[in-house]
Amino acid sequence: MKVAVAGCCHGALDKMYETLELLQRRHNVWPDLLLCCGDFQAVRNEADLRCMAVPAKYRHMQTFYRYYSGEKKAPVLTVFIGGNHEASNHLQELPYGGWVAPNIYYLGYAGVVRFRGVRIGGISGIFKSHDYRKGHFECPPYNQQTIRSAYHVRNIEVFKLKQLKRPIDIFMSHDWPRSIYHYGNKKQLLKMKSFFRQEVESNTLGSPAASELLQHLKPTYWFSAHLHVKFAAFMQHQANSKEELPKATKFLALDKCLPHRDFLQIIDIEHDPSAGDSLEYDAEWIAVLKATNSLVNVTQSSWNMPENNGLHAKWDYSVTEEAIKEVLEELNHNLKIPCNFTLTAACYDPSKPQKHVEPVHTINPQTTEFCAHFGLTDINDRIQQAKEEGSVRGEYEEEEEEMDSTGSAEEPSEYNTDNSGLSSINPDEIMLDEEGGDEDLSTCSVDPSPDHPPDFSASFSDIRIMPDSMAVSSDDAMDSTNEELEKSGVSKPVEEKSLNERPLKRIGGNENGNSGIKKIKRRNQAIYAAEDEDKTE
Question: What global pTM score does this model have?
């Protein structure tokens, strides 16, 4: 079957679907499924806009609300994960996944589904070490800390995914797995994005949690977005035993939405021709959710997942074939995900603006039904209970005093934090003085796709063995084996100017820069300046 993969669409659904229609007219190609790798921006109304961690000037309604209201319907089944520019209050209603509009499905904090026999998994958000070991405690109305921490990846989601044993065909993450840039055309990447060099050479670019999942799951395909550049890599995994067959992962990162033509690509995926056209639950994933339900945490307290270190009575939460069979029996062997989309908030009305509506914490009926069916904890219901008891809000007020100016509590991380650039794991997360946003979100316009359909297979020609530690030398000599990738023309965006050649926009404060302004990384400044230049062209 044909699968379209899109990068950050930033709410421009009309333009994304128009691009697919353009491909169909030009090349007679239409996908069976569309995957979006985060920054989807399922914004229903003005209150949702206020729950996005972006500068106010980039809070645009875009076009999702038309699909939410029923005015329009997605012309192709669309499955997406969350990024770091989302209406977090909306996605939070569906922690286990669900429909945000007819024919548009969100995978949840983490999730696995099936379509035509193809197993698709994903994890939402981006990695930030100081929030990684916390529970999902945030709820609207958010403050300047929780509006960001709401989309930070948590260790419990990674732990759940690591319990999977059956093969994964496709996996999505918003930020890149750390070290993946060593398995593709690194030279070309740094030519396009020269301000990545320091983090690439220090091996701090990307998510260590995603790398851990990549090493464990070894999916056939891994798709990401976030860094607004197209990049392909091919990773040959080491077998864990003599009996295990060799596996490899084709990695592809997509550019942001229009007018960048590299934001969307169509690939051919082997599927089960006897399978139906409905999106389905994954029985093993449901069984894992049931097995790990006791680990659900809705507090800010940092904690580690169970491991075989002598401190936990149980550390293996993978499921047996019998447990999977029980799930199938619960569902009467009908895995079809019910089309039970429900409106849970008023839809934006251009003729009646509601600029001062406050976001509220909502329990979505889809989540209530899902949890009741499988005996799972409704995370939002648990948060509501904690709020009523005063524990969540009280704990937060105490901890807030201990946080630094970026909202980062000094906490130990299970990942190596001896590099000063660790915070750059979230490369586009820009801390602003007043706006509280992360990065520039420029509005997009339709840009036609290339005259020829993209050839996905041509992007993967360099094979490497992935070490268990995922730690790779930054020796540039590794690029010499990437000649075929470079010749294949993985992407041809306009070459980035060096940082010194770009006029950097002053974000605020006085000339001395000491008016409480939070530090912005050099690479983020370059991205920010580049975005503003794009808008003026």
Answer: 0.78
